[in-house]
Every structure is written in structure tokens, then in C-alpha cells.
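Repro case for the chain-ordering regression, as requested:
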Amino acid sequence: MQIDSIASAERAGNLFGYPLMIKSKRLAYDGRGNAVAHSKEELPSAVSALGGFDRGLYVEKWTPFVKELAVIVARGRDGSISCYPVVETIHKDNICHIVEAPANVPGRIKELSVDVAQQAVSSLEGAGVFAVELFLTKDGKVLLNEVAPRPHNSGHHTIESCYTSQYEQHLRAIIGLPLGDTTMKTPAAIMYNILGEDEGEPGLCLANQLISRALSVPGASVHWYGKPEMRKQRKMGHITIVGPSMNIVKARLDQI
Amino acid sequence: MQIDSIASAERAGNLFGYPLMIKSKRLAYDGRGNAVAHSKEELPSAVSALGGFDRGLYVEKWTPFVKELAVIVARGRDGSISCYPVVETIHKDNICHIVEAPANVPGRIKELSVDVAQQAVSSLEGAGVFAVELFLTKDGKVLLNEVAPRPHNSGHHTIESCYTSQYEQHLRAIIGLPLGDTTMKTPAAIMYNILGEDEGEPGLCLANQLISRALSVPGASVHWYGKPEMRKQRKMGHITIVGPSMNIVKARLDQI
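-- result from build under test --
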């Protein structure tokens, strides 16, 4: 629901209850562009934390979820649709920390997730890859969180784990080639984001230790983005580990 | 055995019998730089087909083989050695046509192949990836054919099928990083070379049809080298198909 004044925010609060999630329509990612009002009194400060109403704000009912899931959906220029396996995304301080593929949820939840993701993409236009982020609630409901119309952090693992990576799939989709096979060629994959720490030379930080250890771990692939400077909590790279089971890839990640 | 005159070629013929394989020490690949003399009388023409003795010639005893195998071996700067699974290479007109990974040979032959490959690389210096080509004889012997000190056609499949591709492995080896895991992450892979046909526009040839069909085949990845011109029998690209069994990837290749 859109809001454009404190009065309309208060009406939304009456409708949805508190805490109330307030979101910016633009430049919202990694927790940026989101603010929570725990009561009517907090509405003005939450709105001003988001830069005021000028940037375009809307509210969502607060969702207590048990897991966050994601589905990468590709739509070709001919309208054909193809979904990747459902993954679980584990966030820390609102930033994606780990992605597990496939998600450890019952088959019914996987089907439901794919349904919701396909519906979400159907309501949008355009060819290419879309990342659909979902909430799984305690009572087994799957709710739409957000859609990113592009290759996405939750699909990085596909480079090593799937027959067609999300990047190749995006190219196939926008060029008008047939969509590729989205199934996994390894039983399990785990993706770990390397986040920036305090300012400083990248050469001296934990990232280098992670990378150096990862080079000796079977099935681990290091991706370093070569960003010109490190900033705290900035995504500097990621490590994907593929292997014969989720327990094994988790154990390999623990080594790193 | 080196030869530098027709007289020494004849001595080699007496020693090894005919047919006798004559090889050039340089610029020998895809059947180029090889000539066969079926009798003493054919020696002069075979030698002159190779450009005469000035280019450096040697002879090998003719080997009737039942299969050609290959092993990619990596040696790190610290001397550590790592071998990829043994593959079968299927040639047509002396040019690699298809590579099947893993090779369909008994475990004993695989061990023997890895032994011979490691021995061959041990006798050479330098860090990096070496491709060791082998002959399997009817009586179960594994003989060294040749060694290419570089990433090689017989290892192209590793891009999709192994935890570490031969290219990443080569970089790890020469930079001094730990060698990566060489095991296959898919049960089977088949690589098909796209060879140039008669002169002409690449856009009009069979290659485009192959690529176009491959795009719809699960587990198929097309690699097109972008060479500036097509020449008959020139390697223009390749297609790798990975999947759950050799029968399945062969069937998928048949579709293409």
C-alpha cells in the first residue's frame, strides 16, 4: 500500500498493525530502503530515515517468517518460462550471507514456491532472468517478498551447480535463444558472500585468508569481483562449494 | 629413434619393421608432421613429405592399438602432481573427433594409464598442465603416444564436468596456488569437435545447425572459438554434453 503522508501511514498502521514495514520504491537492496515502525509514534522517524515521501514509499504488513526462500525464473522472448530449483537464503544484518541449494524444505513447499514465483513474474513484463524472494511462514504459507529483475545473488551458485548458469540463461532469454536446462548437475551447493570489513587494503583482510583456504577445499570456487575499494558490508566476492550432499558442502564451508 | 639420413631410416626400418611411423619433432599436431612408410621403398617419399631431415625427424615402431586414451596431468610449482580421470579420444582422419569422459575401460587400465602419464610428466620439467596421449593395445598394454605441455582438446570437457577445469588448473599450477580437485562433478561427459568444412561463410555451414540444435539439448554447452576464418578440418569450436550416464550423453549428442 502506497503512503504519501503521515496520515496515510497511520491509516496503514491501523489496517496492518505494528510493527509496520515501510519501504522505498527505489534503490532498495541489502536492507537499504527499508525501515520498521514499531508503533504509530515511530512513523515520522521511519519515514524520514527513508528520505521522506518524495522518494516514493509504500508499506507492507510485517511478516514473521521461518525461512527465506528464492527462485530464479527466466522468461524467454517467446514467453517460455523456466525456473531454477528453490534455494534458501540466510541473511545476517539484512544482507545475504549464505545460499543453500536446493532448499531443505518439503516438496510441497518447493512446488508452492515455484508457483508463487511464476505468478509474480507473470505479472511483470520483459524477457530475462528474475529473482523472486519469498518468505516461508510457520504455518507453511509462501509469501512474495520482492522481485529483482536481473541475475541475482541467490543464483550465483548456478555457475558451478547447474547445467545452465543464471548468466547464460539471462543471455539466452534476452537474445531469443531457447532457455537452457536449469537442473542441478551437483546434488548440493552452498554459496558464501565475502563481505567487506573496515576500510583498508583488501590485501590485509580476512577475505584473503578465506580465499587462500578455499583454494585447498574440494569443489570450492572463488569469485572475487575486483571492486576498486572495500567498504564495510559491501559484497566483495563469493565462494561457492559444490559436492555430493548438503552436509558435505557445509562441512567444507566450515573448513574455510 | 632419431634419423638424419635415408641410411639411418633404413636401419630403423630393419629394427622396428614396417609399417614404420616417421614423425617431425616440431609442429606436429592433428596428424600433421606424421608420415607412414609401409616399406623400405617408401622411406624417401615419407621423409620428403615431412620436409626432409632438416626439421628433425624420428621414428617409432608402428602400434596397432584398440583405443586411444588420454590423461591430463597437472604439476604445481611445488612439484605436486594431480591427474584428471582417464578419457577416451576418438579420432577421425587423425583429428580428435570425440572425447568420452570417463573412458569405458577396466579399472586396471585406468590405473595403468595414470601411472604411464605420471611417469611421462615426471621425465619432463616445468609447472602447468600436460596432456598425455596413450595407446591401449589389444593385449592390455598402455603405451605412451605423445605429450602436449599445455591445456588440451582431451581436457575441454573439464570446463563443465570437473570441479576444476584444466584452464583453472593450469593457472593454479603456474601461479603456485594449490592444485584443484580433478574429480568429475557429473557422471559422464562427451565432447564433440566442430571442424571446419569447405571454405565459405561460417554462417552458412553445418556448424550453425549444430549449435542451433545444441542450444535445446539438456546439459549441452557450445564453445565457439571465433576464429577469423574457417578452413577445412580446422577446429572451429566444440560442444560438451554432460549428464547422468554415458548412454544418456551419447543419445543427446545423437540429437545434435
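Ordering looks correct now. Chain A has three domains: 2-61, 64-92+101-183, 186-256.
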